[in-house]
Each structure stands twice: as structure tokens, then as C-alpha cells.
Design brief:
Length: about 100
């Protein structure tokens, strides 16, 4: 025969009272530093055109024309040198 435990203990576990811990918070003082004097902002500078030498200007025109030629033919591989040489001829013809 099985006997039930009929003692005064209950079937649920005991709940223990938990003490809340108090964490000490240390207050940090903020040091005041000297503030910089306010200075009026300078107006934004306009983009200044950079002085370009004649050789650099020629190179830039050739590069632009060669790029446009490559773009026109769909940037096909292997024709970059031909585009550059043709662009050089065009720039030289414009300068004469």
C-alpha cells in the first residue's frame, strides 16, 4: 500500500526572501574648463580655379575626348590606345 506523505510540509518549494542589494553609485564631479572665445566664422571660399599648364590642359582635353570615344563604342576592350591616339590628332588639329 502506498502511503501519502501528509506531513505539515507543503508540496510547493519554499519562497525565500531575497534582499535587494543596493549598489553604491559614486558621483563624479565634472570639472569646468575654460571656454574658447567665440570667433566669427569665415565665409565659405568659392572654388578657386587651379592654374593649369598648357601641357596639362592638352592632356586633360585628350583624356576627355578619348573617354567620350570609348563611351560611344561601349568601352570595348582593346581599343583604348587607338582612342587616345585619335584624340591626340583631334586636339593637335584644333590647336593649329
Amino acid at each position: 500500500m502506498t502511503s501519502k506523505n501528509t506531513s505539515s510540509k507543503s508540496a510547493t518549494p519554499k519562497k525565500t526572501a531575497r534582499k535587494k542589494r543596493q549598489v553604491a553609485v559614486k558621483k563624479v564631479s565634472v570639472k569646468k574648463t575654460a571656454t574658447k572665445p567665440k570667433v566669427a566664422k569665415k565665409p565659405a571660399r568659392r572654388a578657386q580655379s587651379k592654374k593649369v599648364s598648357a601641357a596639362e590642359a592638352r592632356y586633360n582635353r585628350i583624356a576627355e575626348i578619348a573617354y567620350l570615344k570609348a563611351e560611344k563604342r561601349g568601352f570595348e576592350h582593346g581599343s583604348a590606345v587607338d582612342d587616345w591616339l585619335e584624340a591626340e590628332r583631334e586636339v593637335d588639329a584644333m590647336d593649329k
